[in-house]
Design a protein that fits this description.
Elements lengths: L3 E4 L2 E7 L1 H18 L6 E6 L3 H9 L6 E11 L6 E6 L9 E9 L3 H11 L5 E9 L12 E5 L5 E2 L15 E4 L2
Parallel strand pairs: 3-4, 3-6, 6-7, 7-8
Antiparallel strand pairs: 1-2, 2-10, 4-5, 9-10
Helix pairs in contact: 1-2
The chain binds inosinic acid (IMP) and magnesium ion.
Length: 179
């Protein structure tokens, strides 16, 4: 029987097991180990959602690398319309470096697009993107998708770092909302 959990006011059912998630991480880590050799990449983990994925991924990276952690602040711009997101917490100089952004999920791609635009101003050599999850049918931006662990439908999910209103990040499996 499918495992069902209640988080706040919603029910979620088990969707992707930890075993499947970690097999998918094995696969992209293998690809990265081949591609990134000799590049001394700087991995940038986007908090909070990516902490669990970043942890599992980095244990599998066997080429010299560094990791840094950033947050995205969201605020409604006074002058501009819409939601503006700013990257903060990045102390490293990324000039001329290979940067790998570690995301939990790419949905519309708005967040990733904004993130790349801001990092590009700091003149890196190249920006690569890895995401644990991608919702291909929700994507409306042209963003690089170098290492995608899992592709999923547009359901709302939690677990493995992803949250519903701050809850559910701790589950080692991924759950999707029950309709
Ligand atoms: P995007 O800007 O539309 O690509 O959305 C990216 C952000 O939305 C992610 O970093 C998550 O914080 C959040 N998000 C999108 N889909 C989900 C989901 O199914 N569960 C939890 N958070 C999600
Ligand atoms: Mg996120």
């Amino acid at each position: 029987m499918t495992k069902v959990i209640t988080v706040k006011d919603k029910e979620f059912e088990q969707f992707i097991s930890q075993q499947i998630i970690e097999k998918a991480i094995d696969k992209i880590a293998d690809d990265m180990n081949k591609d990134l050799e000799g590049k001394n990449p700087l991995f940038i983990c986007v908090l909070n959602g990516s902490f669990m994925f970043a942890s599992e991924l980095m244990k599998r990276i066997q080429t010299p690398a560094e990791i840094s952690f950033v947050k995205l602040s969201s605020y409604d711009g006074l002058a501009s319309s819409g939601n503006v997101k700013e990257v903060f917490g990045l102390k490293e100089d990324i000039t001329g470096r290979t940067v790998v952004i570690i995301e939990d999920i790419i949905d519309t791609g708005n967040t990733m697009k904004a993130m790349i635009e801001q990092l590009n101003k700091r003149n890196p050599k190249e920006i690569l993107v890895t995401t644990l999850l991608l919702k291909p049918d929700a994507l409306v931006n042209d963003v690089p998708l170098d290492y995608v662990a899992l592709r999923i439908p547009c359901d709302f999910i939690i677990g493995y770092g992803l949250d519903y209103d701050g809850h559910g990040r701790n589950y080692p499996d991924i759950y999707k909302v029950k309709n």
